[in-house]
């Protein structure tokens, strides 16, 4: 297990560029943790780019376009929560894995609603962290058969993260888009709450399955003609949910 001073960004690659699997941005202000994380990713053939404060992290996010971000919450200049939301606003397709000592359920739920793809609590297992990061990257690379998906009076562009209903824009959060995308990739398949948590949130130890119920409720309110009597996002009692376009 790894247990968790501001410094400048360290952009020295850990591996020759030609052998690197890609760049992982680490935003962490503890120099000891920076070294640990650099080593973890270097051993798996990733190039680690490290920022010791929020402002530098934002600059590197824009310039490096990393495969994924490992983000601490308590940072100088810009907080991890603010960065998480800003990162998703710039490039919603880059996975963000929060790494923090904060364990409160409310904080985890808030971060996932702000767009974080996963949450790992310090102290952590290097193997678990790497598995979470790689799983988030795989989920993001999973192809969508149609970039623009239509059902009923709804038209969704998953690449641009825009949705229109009867021609009028509807605002969805990052996780609402992810959840809807997974439903469209699994039409008429009964999806349990655990499957949705694992595949959409990537958090197989998530504190409560009520999170799924709340997100489905919000989607219904935005997409269904009559949210109280849904025709697209159906509840399969005792099993989970099913999307019928």
UniProtKB/TrEMBL annotation:
Keyword Phosphoprotein on entry: yes
This protein's UniProt keywords: DNA-binding, Phosphoprotein, Two-component regulatory system
Coiled-coil stretches noted in the UniProt entry, renumbered to this chain: none
DNA-binding region: 146-245
Domain OmpR/PhoB-type span(s) in chain numbering: 146-245
Gene3D superfamilies: 3.40.50.2300, 6.10.250.690, Winged helix-like DNA-binding domain superfamily/Winged helix DNA-binding domain
Domain Response regulatory: 23-137
List of residues that carry 4-aspartylphosphate: 72
InterPro entries, alphabetized: CheY-like_superfamily, OmpR/PhoB-type_DNA-bd, Sig_transdc_resp-reg_receiver, WalR-like, WH-like_DNA-bd_sf
PANTHER family with a match to the protein in the record: PHOSPHATE REGULON TRANSCRIPTIONAL REGULATORY PROTEIN PHOB (PTHR48111:SF40), REGULATOR OF RPOS (PTHR48111)
Protein name from the UniProt record: Response regulator transcription factor
Organism: Acidicapsa dinghuensis
């Amino acid at each position: 297990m790894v247990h968790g001073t501001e410094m400048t960004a360290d952009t020295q690659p850990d591996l020759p560029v030609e052998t690197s699997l890609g760049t992982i941005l680490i935003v962490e202000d503890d120099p000891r943790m920076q070294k640990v994380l650099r080593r973890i990713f270097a051993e798996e053939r990733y190039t680690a780019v490290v920022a010791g404060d929020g402002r530098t992290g934002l600059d590197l996010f824009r310039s490096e376009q990393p495969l994924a971000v490992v983000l601490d919450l308590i940072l100088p200049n810009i907080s991890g929560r603010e960065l998480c939301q800003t990162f998703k606003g710039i490039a919603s397709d880059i996975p963000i894995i929060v790494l923090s000592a904060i364990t409160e359920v409310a904080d985890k739920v808030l971060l996932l609603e702000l767009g974080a793809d996963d949450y790992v609590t310090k102290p952590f297992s290097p193997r678990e962290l790497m598995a979470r990061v790689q799983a988030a990257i795989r989920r993001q690379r999973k192809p969508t058969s149609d970039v623009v998906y239509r059902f009923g009076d709804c038209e969704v562009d998953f690449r641009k993260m825009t949705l229109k209903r009867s021609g009028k824009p509807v605002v969805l959060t990052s996780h609402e888009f992810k959840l809807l995308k997974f439903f469209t990739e699994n039409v008429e398949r009964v999806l349990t709450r655990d499957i949705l948590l694992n595949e959409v949130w990537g958090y197989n130890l998530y504190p409560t399955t009520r999170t799924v119920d709340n997100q489905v409720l919000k989607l219904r309110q935005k997409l269904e003609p009559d949210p109280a009597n849904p025709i697209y996002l159906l509840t399969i009692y005792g099993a989970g949910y099913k999307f019928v376009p």
